[in-house]
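Each lists sequence, tokenised fold; shown next:
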Amino acid sequence: MTVQLIIMGTRRPDSDDHYAAYGGVALPVMLAAGGSFIGQYGRIDDLVGDDGPQVVGIMEFEDEAAVRAAFNSPEYQAAVPDRDKAFERFNVILAAAPPAA
């Protein structure tokens, strides 16, 4: 079943170097795991709630196992310290469309 990886983050001020280092590893790892890049989006406004993420990224994968393998890979794990220094908040969810009736 195809799944979508939805990444939501709020960057730390003055974190450009860590943001670039993280992105330089994370995106190639996700693509190598079979991910298709759908897009990266910046927040315009919070219509409901407050303090939403600054950036949202969406990728699509063949299945959940591919996503988990990418996140558990040694390459991705080596980039986690840069991720943690680049973002004040960082949330990742897996989503899938409900099965057809």
Remarks:
- The two ends are 15 Å apart (CA to CA).
- The beta strands are 3-11, 36-42, 55-61, 87-95.
- The domain at 3-95 is CATH 3.30.70.100 (Alpha-Beta Plaits).
